[in-house]
Amino acid sequence: MEGWSTRLAIRIASFVAAAIIFIGGLGFLVLSAYLALLAHVSPPMAALIAAITAFLLGAITLLAGHGVVALMRRRRQRDAGQLAETFREILGDEIVSIATENPHATVFTSLATGFAIGAVPELRHLLRDLLRKA
Fold first, then answer.
1. For residues 13 and 66, is the Cβ–Cβ distance under 8 A?
2. CA pair distance 62, 22, nearest whole angstrom
3. Which of 56, 74, 87, 134 is the most exposed, having the fewest neighbouring CB atoms within 10 Å of its CB?
4. Can you give the pLDDT at residue 45?
5. pLDDT at residue number 25
6. What gap in Å lies between CA 72 and CA 114, rounded to an integer?
7. For residue 51, with 0-12 CB atoms within 10 Å meaning exposed, 13-18 middle and 19 or more buried, which class applies?
8. Cα 69 to the center of its chain, rounded Å
9. Residue 69: is it exposed, middle or buried by C-beta count within 10 angstroms (0-12/13-18/19+)?
């Protein structure tokens, strides 16, 4: 079931992972970066650089989650298209071969189907509604 619920779950998981990185690792990251930068720049500049680094790490995590969802969506669309094409090829060839082998049965089936659709209004309305949805 790789539908919208799976994509939503992946997005939520990537958001939670980004939040954990922000909350859990932000303190240690900022403190260590701040202490390392103190030897080279002023204290306010060291704090700014450390904070920007932490925010970039969280943004990269969110982008990675978004990329995974996009790849799953493309794969699912491609698989659905290939499956429909395969069914079309198999069923189309099968129907043509049956109709060619049994011409009398094909004509009788077509006449019976046409009569049933014309004679039964409920069947006609059902078929009309199905065709409108397609």
1. no
2. 11
3. 134
4. 85
5. 74
6. 44
7. middle
8. 6
9. middle
pLDDT at residue 77 in the model: 66
Taking 70 as the pLDDT cut, the residues of the chain under it are 1-2, 76-92, 94, 134
In angstroms, what CA-CA distances link 28 with 22, 60, 90? 10, 18, 61
Q: Which two tokens stand for residue 97?
A: 């071969």
**Hey, what amino acid is at 66?**
H
Q: What is the pLDDT of residue 63?
A: 84
pLDDT score, position 65? 81
Residue 58: how many CB atoms within 10 A of its CB?
19
- Given a contact cutoff of 8 angstroms between Cβ atoms, the answer to whether 30 and 54 are in contact is yes
Cα separation, 108 vs 43, whole angstroms: 91
CB atoms within 10 A of CB 46: 19
Tokens 């059902």 correspond to what residue?
A: 126
Spatial CA neighbour of 72 closest among 134, 30, 127, 10: 10
